[in-house]
C-alpha cells in the first residue's frame, strides 16, 4: 500500500531538487527514500524502478525548460527569438544543472512522441526556425546545430571550461550572431 502523502509527482519534484543539489547521477531510489524517511521498497508503489524515475524527471525538467523558453520567445521572431530562446535555454541549464542533465538522457521515442512537453518543444523550436524559411530536412539539421551549440556551450561554461580572459557573455552573444547568420544563409540542396 502506498505511504500516505507520497505520490509519483512528489517523488519527481524531490528527485529534481536532489539532481540540482547533488547531481543527476546521484538521483537514486535510496537517496529519495532517505529524504522521505521511508524504506526504498515503499517507493516502488509510485515508480517502477530508477529508470522510470529518471525518465519522469527528464519529462518534468523538459516541461519546465520549454515553459521558460516559450515565455522568452513569445511575440518574437528571427534573431530576437533566437537570442531569447538561447538565453532561456542557457539560464535553465546553468541554474538547474541536475534537471538539465536529466533532459539529455536517451529516451524511448514512443515516450517522447506521447509527451506533451516534447510536442510543445518541437512546435516552439520549429516555429522559431520556420521564420528563417527552413523546411524539412533542413529543420532537423538546424535543430541539431542549435542543440549541440547550446549544450556544448553550457557544458563548457558550467564546467569552467572557458579560461580565456574574454567575457563569457560576449562570446555567447557572438555565438548567437553566428547562428543567426548561419540560419539566415542556410545552405540549400539544389
Distance between the termini: 63 Å
Largest sheet: none
Q: Strand tally, please?
A: 0
Query: Which structural category do the helix and sheet elements fall into?
Result: mainly alpha
Dominant shape: globular
Strand content: under 5%
Query: Based on the structure, what is the oligomeric state of the protein chains?
Result: single chain
Order of helices and strands: HHHHHHHHH
**Averaged pLDDT, please?**
93
User: Can you give the helix content as a percent range?
Assistant: 55-70%
Count the helices. How many?
Answer: 9
How many whole angstroms does the radius of gyration measure? Answer: 19 Å
| pLDDT < 50 runs, ≥5 residues | none
Describe the 3D structure.
The chain has 190 residues and is mainly α. The chain contains 9 helices and no strands. The termini are far apart.
Fill in the keyword field for this structure:
single chain, 9 helices, globular, mainly alpha, 190 residues, 69% helix
Brief overview:
The chain is mainly alpha-helical. Helix content is 69%, strand content 0%.
List the helices and strands and how they pair.
Layout: H1 8-22, H2 29-36, H3 50-73, H4 78-95, H5 97-103, H6 109-114, H7 116-130, H8 138-158, H9 168-184
Helix pairs in contact: 1-3, 1-5, 3-4, 3-5, 3-7, 4-5, 4-8, 4-9, 8-9
Amino acid at each position: 500500500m502506498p505511504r500516505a502523502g507520497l505520490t509519483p509527482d512528489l517523488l519527481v519534484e524531490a528527485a529534481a531538487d536532489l539532481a540540482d543539489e547533488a547531481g543527476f547521477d546521484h538521483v537514486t531510489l535510496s537517496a529519495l527514500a532517505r529524504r522521505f524517511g521511508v524504506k526504498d521498497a515503499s517507493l516502488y508503489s509510485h515508480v517502477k524502478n530508477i529508470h522510470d524515475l529518471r525518465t519522469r524527471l527528464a519529462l518534468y525538467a523538459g516541461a519546465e525548460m520549454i515553459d521558460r523558453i516559450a515565455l522568452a520567445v513569445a511575440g518574437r521572431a528571427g534573431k530576437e527569438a533566437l537570442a531569447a530562446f538561447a538565453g532561456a535555454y542557457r539560464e535553465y541549464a546553468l541554474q538547474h544543472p541536475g534537471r538539465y542533465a536529466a533532459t539529455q538522457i536517451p529516451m524511448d521515442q514512443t515516450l517522447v512522441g506521447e509527451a506533451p512537453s516534447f510536442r510543445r518543444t518541437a512546435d516552439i523550436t520549429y516555429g522559431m526556425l520556420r521564420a528563417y524559411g527552413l523546411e524539412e530536412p533542413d529543420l532537423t539539421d538546424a535543430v541539431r546545430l542549435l542543440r549541440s551549440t547550446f549544450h556544448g556551450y553550457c557544458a563548457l561554461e558550467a564546467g569552467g571550461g572557458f579560461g580565456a580572459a574574454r567575457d563569457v557573455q560576449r562570446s555567447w552573444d557572438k555565438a548567437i550572431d553566428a547562428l543567426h547568420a548561419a540560419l539566415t544563409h542556410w545552405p540549400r540542396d539544389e
